Amino acid sequence: MLSSFRPLDWLLGFFSLDVGIDLGTANTLVCVRDRGIVINEPSWVAIRKRTREPLAVGAEAREMVGRTPADIIAIRPLRDGVISEFEITEAMLSYFIKKVHEQVLVPFPRPRVVVGIPSGVTEVEERAVRDATIQAGAREAHLIEEPVAAAIGAGLPIMESRGSMIVDIGGGTTEVAVFSMGGVVVRRSVRVAGDEMDEDIVQYARNKYNLLIGERSAERAKITAGSAFPLPEERTITLRGRNLINGLPQAVEISSIELREAMAPAINVIVDAVKDAIDETPPELVADLMETGICLAGGGAQIRGLADRIEDAVRMRVWVAEDPMTCVARGAGRVLEDFAYFSRVLTDDTDRKRRLK
């Protein structure tokens, strides 16, 4: 979406960097054209409760979670891949855009920005992302669906006639898409991903051990010992929290088998979304997928055994992209490198209306 021409914006834009952003529920990644990933920080903002004034952004804000005084709270301004706190998201985007431009000494950057969004967002949610990006300082704000960006970042041949498939598992959403000839043939978007796995672990510890743990502890357990398929050598991890019966501190050793049981509901939803997408895929493209396999991207793709779990369910080769967490941001950056070639994969209101008919 191009704004009206302004000479000052054009001049500042000449010195500004083209920026691709993966505006994720859990992490925000920024890719600069021809330079690669320059920012990978948690999508957290610490604000003063009364005035809503941002005090810290990214990794610094994440370190404050659970440790702030009463008048300061650390929040994530995105939930399930969409904006829940518009002004806070705008402040976070502005911070990252300015941080990128500090190295080129542009005091008021006006970059061209491509932002990844979930494929299941509404027109209102889409407009909120675009408006927040413009308000944060972009002279142009273009949107791209996350599975499309992830597929480009993973190197899938989505512009060719043969079929390819991506499963992008983020913090708030899981995106499944089948591509052919530069278009999405089948898409699935479920708001079940890494966050739900963390919540399932919290609930499991509460129900089985009467142990109250925080989301950060649950995430650490998921990363350290979590799995979606039996491991050659099972692991254990110690969970520390508060006993709900006596209120005292407690430590419990939990195995990867138990974590697998805890995470099973969310994993099953993701597997079912993949199976549903394959069920709707035309036979000729299914034949292509049997040769090329299914690519996993996003932070959730790093869960041990997830590729094996999906492969066991769909009887098709499943592989994990190189550096899966950065695929969406790298894909957005790739679009900026060859904007004319990839412009037709970008999302705008006209395209959305056409798809919804």
Report on the architecture of this protein.
The radius of gyration is 21 Å and the shape is flat. The protein is an alpha+beta fold and 357 residues long. The strands form five sheets. It has a five-stranded mixed beta sheet with strand order 3-2-1-9-10, with helices on both faces. A five-stranded mixed beta sheet has the order 13-12-11-17-18. A three-stranded antiparallel beta sheet has the order 5-4-6. The chain has helices at 7-15, 59-62, 86-101, 123-135, 146-153, 194-209, 215-225, 256-280, 283-292, 306-314, 327-337, 339-342, 349-356, and strands spanning 19-23, 27-32, 36-42, 45-48, 54-57, 72-75, 78-79, 82-83, 112-117, 140-145, 164-169, 174-180, 183-190, 211-212, 236-243, 249-255, 294-297, 318-320.
In short:
The protein has helices at 7-15, 59-62, 86-101, 123-135, 146-153, 194-209, 215-225, 256-280, 283-292, 306-314, 327-337, 339-342, 349-356, and strands at residues 19-23, 27-32, 36-42, 45-48, 54-57, 72-75, 78-79, 82-83, 112-117, 140-145, 164-169, 174-180, 183-190, 211-212, 236-243, 249-255, 294-297, 318-320. With 357 residues, the protein is an alpha+beta fold. The chain has three domains: 7-149 and 328-356, ATPase, nucleotide binding domain (Nucleotidyltransferase, domain 5); 156-192 and 267-325, ATPase, nucleotide binding domain (Nucleotidyltransferase, domain 5); 194-263, Actin, Chain A, domain 4 (Alpha-Beta Complex), CATH 3.90.640.
